[in-house]
Amino acid sequence: MRYSSNFAKTLKNAPADAETTNARLLQQAGFVDQLMAGVYSYLPLGLRVLRKIENIVREEMNTLGANEVLMPILHPKAIWEATGAWNNVDVLFKLQSRTGNEYAIGQSEEEVVTPLVMQRAQSYKQYPLAVYQIHWKYRDELRAKSGIMRGREFFMKDMYSFHTTQEDFERFYQNAKEAYLRIFSRLGLTAKVTEASGGNFSEKISYEFEVLTDAGEDVVYYCDACDFCVEDEIAKQKPGDTCPRCSKDVLHEAKAAEVGNVFDLGKKYGKDFDLSYTDEQGEKQYPIMGCYGIGISRVMGVIVEKYNDEKGMMWPKSVAPFAVHLVSIVGKNVDGTVAATAERLYDDLVVVGVEVLWDDREDVSAGAKFADADLIGIPLRLVVSEKTLAESEVEWKERSASEASRVSLAEIIEKVRSFQL
Length: 421
Ligand code: ATP
Ligand code: MG
Prior knowledge:
The chain has helices spanning 21-28, 44-63, 77-82, 85-88, 110-118, 166-186, 268-273, 296-306, 337-351, 366-376, 386-389, 412-420; strands spanning 32-36, 39-42, 67-68, 74-76, 93-96, 102-105, 129-138, 153-163, 192-196, 206-212, 218-222, 229-231, 252-266, 277-278, 284-285, 288-295, 308-309, 312-313, 324-329, 356-359, 380-385, 393-398, 405-408. Helix content is 29%, strand content 29%. A hairpin with a 2-residue loop joins strand 17 (308-309) and strand 18. The longest helix is centred in the middle third of the chain and has 21 residues, at 166-186. It has two domains: 3-309, Bira Bifunctional Protein, Domain 2 (BirA Bifunctional Protein, domain 2, 2-Layer Sandwich), CATH 3.30.930.10; 324-419, Anticodon-binding domain (Rossmann fold), CATH 3.40.50. Helix 1 crosses helix 8, helix 2 (44-63) packs antiparallel against helix 6 (166-186) and helix 2 (44-63) crosses helix 8 (296-306). With 421 residues, the protein is an alpha+beta fold. Strands 3, 7, 8, 9, 10, 11, 12, 13 and 16 form a nine-stranded mixed β-sheet that branches. Strands 20-19-21-22-23 form a five-stranded mixed β-sheet, sandwiched between helices. A three-stranded antiparallel β-sheet has the order 4-6-5. It is elongated, with a radius of gyration of 25 Å. The protein binds adenosine-5'-triphosphate and magnesium ion. Adenosine-5'-triphosphate (ATP) is lined by residues 108, 139, 141, 150-151, 154, 156, 199, 258-261, 293, 295, 297-298. Adenosine-5'-triphosphate binds next to strand 8, strand 13, strand 16 and helix 8.
C-alpha cells in the first residue's frame, strides 16, 4: 500500500480522552477511530491487524475440526426468554420495533446455536460436533474506558461444542485449551490458564486465559515456578501463600486481561429448549455443551499494551499490518532516482509476496516519516535516499533495535524474505 493513498493518516496528537496506551496509540497512528465510548471504526491499518488475528484464530479452530458459520446479531426475544437470560443478563441490549416486537442484540450466541445445531443433530451418530463464528458482539457495559479492550461493540470468536458423554467433552475441552495456547503464542502473548467461576453460564469452574498487564481489569494470583493461576475472586489462597500446585514458590498478585475463556455448559441449553437427540438405546438425551470465546478486538488492544515504547507500537511479525515499512527520502534528488528505486523495490517485494507499506509522500520531511514509522510499529523499516543510493544500498532498521545498518540493493529481497520467516 502506498501511504499517500491511505485516507487515515497518523494524527499530530492523540485524542485528549484516550485513557489507556492502546486507545492513545491506535487512534494516533490511524488504526481505529472512536465513534463513542466503547465503539470503534477499524481503519485500513487497524483492519489488517484485526484480520491477521482473526485468521490465526480461524486456522486453529479449523484444525480442531470445528465448522465455521455466521449467525445473526438481531435475535427474537423468545429465545432469550427460553433460557432466562432476557431478565438475568444485565449487559443484554434490547430494542423494540415499530410494531412493538422486542429483540435482543447478540451478546453471546448459545440461544441461537443450540436450536440451530440440535434441529440437525438428532442422532447420537452425529456427535461430537463443534461450530464457531467470528462476529460482532454487543454488550451494555457500564465502563468502556480501556480503549478497544472493553467495547460495547467488539469482535469475538465464539465456538460451541456438543457431546454425548462427559469424557468426550473433557477430551475436546483439553484439545481446545491447547489450541488456545497455540493461538496466543502465535499472537506473541503469554496467556495463563486461570481457574475462574462459571459466571452466568455454569455452576462449574471455567478457565480464563489471562495475559498479565496493568491495563487489564482482572486480578490473578499466579506461581512463577509452575503454571498455576487463579482469579482472586475464587482463590482459596492469598498472595504470599505457598503455591498449592507445586509448593516451590509463593503466589504473586498481578493485574491481567482476559483474552479468552472456555466453559463447561453441561446440559443447560438442551434442557432450556427441550432439544434432544436419540442415543444408541433409542432414549432421548440432552447434549453436553461447551463454549469457548476469544476476544479478537480485545487481543489487538492487549498486544499494543505489551508491545510499545515511548515512540509508538511494536507489532509482532505475525499480526503486523505490513511486514516492511519502506521510506523514500527524495529531498533534493532532482533526477528522480530515489523515487524510481523505491518504486522498483516496492514492486519487487510485493511480487514475491512481501506486504509493504511505502511512505511515498514527497512533501513530508524525513523526520516526520521516521516518527510515523515508529508510531505505526511495522517490524522492519527500509530507507532509500540519495545517501544510501550512492553506495547502492538500503538502510535497514528493525523496530525493536536501536541501531540501523545497510544492505546492498542486490541482496535486499532475499534478506527481507528470510527476515519474514
Ligand atoms: P469480562 O470478564 O472481561 O467482561 P466475559 O467473561 O464477560 O469478559 P465472555 O462473555 O466469556 O467474557 O466473552 C469471551 C471473550 O470476549 C472474553 O474472554 C474477552 O476476551 C472478550 N470480551 C468480553 N467482553 C468484552 C468487551 N466488552 N469488549 C471486548 N472484548 C470482550
Ligand atoms: Mg463481561
